[in-house]
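Please predict the structure of the following assembly.
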Amino acid sequence: MAQRALLRCENLRRSFGDRSAVEGISFSIEPGEIYGLLGPNGAGKTTIIKMVCGLLEPDAGEVSVEGRPVHSDLSVRSLIGYVPQDIALYPDLTASENLRFIARLYKLPSDVVRQRVAEVLELCELSDRANDRVDSFSGGMKRRLNIGAGLLHHPRLLVLDEPTVGVDPQSRHSILERVQEFGRSGMAVLYTTHYMEEAEHVCSRVGIIDHGRLIAEGTRRELVEQLGERDRIEMSATGNLEAFAAACRAIPGVDSVATTSDAVQVVAGEGRRMLPLLLEASEQIDVTVNTIDVTEPNLEAVFLHLTGTALRD
Amino acid sequence: MPAVLLIAGKDLRQRLRDRSAIVLGLIAPLLIAALMSFAFKGTESFHYSLGVVNDDHGAVASQLVKSLDSKASRTVLSVVALSSASVARTSVRDGHVAAALVIPAGFSTSLSAPHPESLAIVTSVNHQVEANVTRSIVGSFTAQVNADRLSVETALATGAPASSLTTLSAEAATLRIPLQSIERPIGADQLSAISYYSPAMAIFFLLFTISFASRSFFVDRAEGMIERMRAAPLGPAEILVGKALSVFVYGTLSLATVGVITSAAFGANWGSPLAACLLGLALVISVVCLTALVIGVARTQRQAEGFASLLVFGLALLGGNFIMISSSPPLMRTLALFTPNGEAMRGFSDLATIGGGLSAVARPIEAILLISVVTGGAALTLARRAVS
């Protein structure tokens, strides 16, 4: 029997002036599920997150957690743990002062506050720095504490908005492990990222967002299967890459092409057989191909296939 | 703990950890009030040295010197006898005396002649007030002498025999001009500089709370803390009231501390404690409303700082925090009554001079609360938008 969705977003729409940021997004997350919203910067991920957390009123549609509407029932926010993209902590307060303040915002009793603050400090591996001011912390420590602050009230739904931006690889690894643990503990997690690797590694289900629309949704396998027997070819190159991309598009069998600042990405059936044709095209327009990487399709290839653009600039 | 108290407590803790809060809320108002008081100290107990050159030694000249050296005159001036007009000029120029009076030889006898000798007053631009006081005293004396002369001339013109001139002159000298002005101030006490500048500076630095609190709000917003609070089960009103409460408590503490210290250490007269407290509380409420208005109007931290600076210095200039409003032009005195600090200054001045209790400050309190209602109403709508 299917579990009842913990978070349900139905036909969310939101505009800022004439610019439409989110256009009719619907998705749901079940307990224990880590749902990734994958999309480039400006795709509308943060707007969706803010509507989910009750920080932004949707123009249309509804968000509910455990069947209760987020925007008309203030108490629902106790079920949601919000971890904003930027560090949201008082730099002039200590780690424990920050956590105590945030825990009390959720109206937890004093003895519970003490216990939860100690728990979170332990989880963030900051117990020995509890009484140090946050402005003396490294970026990674602040990031961990920022995530911990969202867990103080034991939320049923944890919302993480790009929690690994600007984080060193070691801290990133630690954060991703923690997120997986939250999922295993039965917490529903909504995770936004523009890092394809993170979405593939952490999320049990992924929604791909572009220009405010949910263009695909499913498990990694389901999404990649949309591409069939295709390969992703990434060629780092120097020269007129736009002209090279146009030349690649003209080759029969090439499905989609996108450029980044120093590479051209191609999705094509039987990619290895395409290589001589692609190299010939590069020679004709005087583009030097430095490296070629042929991989099995991944979420980035899915994004390229669906949108015709690369996930990252 | 209610969220409102939680937010206010956290804001206060942060504010008091910031050394500038102690400097601006306590040290600066005390220091500047003391400096202002010191600077204006001489204006409360006016007294100067008047050089007198008596080259006449006649009866009228002696009477003039005697009146200048009388007990009543000694509260304002001290007579310093000088030997000649040139010595008088040197003494005034060198500042040994603030002004000098020269009674020329033959002055007394010349009073019965058609063209009497003139008294000369030696003055300096550095002592204008003393020069005016000397002119006034000598003018009063010459008015009396002229009245005597006029009465004698009138008696002779209406048929009194010329032989009675000496008798008439003696009788006229005993008469006094009947019309005299008597000063009856409405305040029982004089307003000392420290009693004016203690509340003036306490209020001026209280106004800085507008700048600090509005900036702190935008810093909180930029750091994502307003958003984090809003993600918790709190309404925007709880966040706003919590922030306002911290401004209220800090403002009240600052005003009360400066009041207590200036009263105890410098002898400032704040009037009835209850009335002063209520007036102070009304003023702090208006500061809270003005802070909310700045937060509501500004879009960024920089804008908030700009608006707050304009507001603080504008109010301080209009309300009489820098200069005694009584010595300002009539327009400024009127404009002061449209500012909460101007009304408060008027209330504190009345308490220090007229005295009285709540009745003395009822009108300023009403006016301040009215200003608070107007600014607070506008702020409520705008500041909710800022939180949202």
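The two ends of chain B are 23 Å apart (CA to CA). Chain B touches chain A at residues 1, 3, 6, 10, 13-14, 17-18, 223-225, 227-235 (CB under 8 Å).
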